[in-house]
Write a structure and sequence with these properties.
The chain contains 16 helices and eleven strands. The protein is of the alpha/beta class and 494 residues long. The chain has two domains: 391 residues, Amidase signature (AS) domain (Amidase signature (AS) enzymes, Alpha-Beta Complex); 82 residues, no CATH class. It binds glutamine (GLN).
């Protein structure tokens, strides 16, 4: 039965429907293997106990009924603690489920647990987790990417079938690319942010990771719903992402723009460039037109993101004082308020979080807001307009997900600017509020996955999935079980 662990959600649901395996039986198997491989990969901050959150049998029509899902620990859950990967939230038991979590629960999904992440989503490797780093299932000495590194690793290492992640500057797509799975960033507001612990609100998205595009469409059918609890929610009420994904007409003869500046050998490694050129040929063979296009101001993308993002974070994180949330820092009434803040916020936040709070406070301060924050807002506006203009000439954009394959654990952790450079290809979509997807684009000569990214205009999520499905069918580079996971599976006694 253990071969079932390698299936996609839709393949698995066909087995459920045919009565070949019961969801509860599969869930028990899923949890046994998740626990078996966990000491090597360390995807989870909290791993579910058997029997936690059984699906509601009344909800059998749910798009992903009975499928085990892992959840990034930046989304609130009533049955697991929620830490955001931070000491400051240790022991926090949220009183409510994030809307996306609740929709999955109501649709009858099992939860495998809460996945590891860079603290509050700040990072590109999961090494900024206050607890431990996650390992890449393709090479345990490398990072899985971040910040949704635990989510990506859990799907790649057969610990969950699909996962909910979050993406502020690439945190779903980059780890998906590093771990050889699919990662989807929906249009801003298409999945509710209610219950997503806020990092940079104007850039934050809930996204999802899976082994193929069909599973992404099924996830969107469950969680991509309007929500009155999120003031920025703008999801269409009755979208059918599966039907839109299958609508081949919508992408027949479409034109894909390849961003020259994102194919610069000074920026992108040779392995990744080769994979992108192969992807371009795949699209041409699938009947798409390909056009080379220029994106102005590429050198401003990271500075713009790394000003706006800390600015919003410094404001969002002001609420953590060890009193209102979390149980790790009990109040000591002999302290003054100043002393209390020092005693809680210095040890409660990790180095990267403190760096961003300081940076954000600085760029928002009266003397510097015009020079930095307001300037970055204008740059963001120009980027958004530039992208919209590009879409007058092409239907989609193609670019790498990351300039390199997964880097080594410890390799970039002492150099924040080098770490930030991992996000150059992903921040554009967040800044321009467009949907984007990362798909497995084959392996590098040293056996590491390479991500291929597509971006579509705002609100063209269904059509983006149709293009992704077209690519997936023609490329033949979809998810495969990482060699060391296959080895673990072979030695695993059910
Ligand atoms: N790596 C980026 C950062 O550190 C993006 C993080 C994210 O998308 N949550 O901000």
């Amino acid at each position: 039965m253990k071969e079932l662990l390698t299936l996609t959600a839709h393949e698995l649901m066909a087995k459920f429907a045919a009565g070949e395996v019961a969801p509860e039986e599969f869930y028990a198997l899923q949890m046994r293997f998740a626990r078996h491989i966990e000491p090597k990969v360390r995807s989870f901050l909290t791993l579910a106990e058997d029997g936690v959150s059984p699906p509601d049998v009344a909800a059998r029509d749910g798009a992903l009924w009975g499928v085990p899902v892992s959840i990034k620990d930046l989304l609130t859950t009533t049955d697991f603690p929620t830490t955001a990967g931070s000491r400051i939230l240790e022991g926090y038991a949220p009183p409510y489920d994030a809307t996306a979590v609740k929709l999955l629960r109501d649709a009858g999904n099992y939860f495998t647990g809460k996945t590891n992440l860079d603290e509050f989503g700040m990072g590109s490797s999961t090494e900024n987790s206050a607890y431990f780093p996650t390992h890449n299932p393709w090479d345990l000495a490398r990072v899985p990417g971040g910040s949704s590194g635990g989510s990506a690793a859990s799907v790649a290492a057969l610990q969950s079938v699909v996962s909910l992640g979050t993406d502020t500057g690439g945190s779903v797509r980059q780890p998906a690319g590093f771990c050889g799975v699919v990662g989807f960033l929906p249009t801003y507001g298409y999945v509710s942010r209610n219950g997503l612990i806020a990092f940079a609100s104007s850039l934050d998205h809930v996204g999802m990771l899976a082994r193929d595009v069909t599973d992404i469409a099924l996830m969107m059918n469950t969680v991509g719903r309007p929500d009155k609890l999120d003031a920025t929610s703008q999801a269409p009420a009755d979208a059918d992402y599966l039907a839109e994904m299958n609508d081949r007409e919508s992408v027949a003869g479409c034109t894909v723009g390849v961003i020259n500046q994102m194919m610069d050998p000074k920026l992108v490694s040779q392995d990744v460039l080769v994979a992108c050129e192969v992807a371009i040929r795949v699209l041409e063979n699938a009947g798409c037109g390909v056009k080379r296009v220029d994106l102005a101001g590429v050198e401003r993308l990271l500075p713009c993101y790394y000003i706006l993002c800390p600015a919003e974070a410094s404001s969002n994180l002001a609420r953590y004082d060890g009193i209102r949330y979390g149980a790790g820092f009990p109040a000591d009434i002999s302290r003054t308020l100043q002393q209390h803040y020092r005693a809680v916020r210095s040890p409660g936040f990790g180095e990267e979080v403190r760096r961003r709070i300081l940076l954000g406070t600085y760029v928002l301060s009266a003397g510097y807001a015009e020079a930095y924050y307001n300037q970055a807002r204008r740059v963001r506006h120009a980027i958004t307009e530039g992208i919209a203009e590009m879409f007058e000439g092409v239907d989609f954009l193609l670019l790498p997900t990351s300039p390199t394959t997964a880097f080594g654990l410890g390799e970039r952790i002492d150099d924040p600017v080098k770490m930030y450079a991992a996000d150059i290809c992903t921040v554009t979509a967040n800044l321009a509020s467009t949907p984007a997807i990362s798909l497995p684009g084959g392996l590098s000569p040293d056996g590491m996955p390479i991500g291929i990214q597509f971006i579509a205009p705002q609100k063209h999520d269904g059509r983006l999935l149709a293009l992704a499905r077209l690519y997936e069918e023609h490329a033949g580079t979809g998810y495969s079980v990482p060699p060391l996971v296959a080895e673990e599976l072979a030695g695993f006694e059910e």
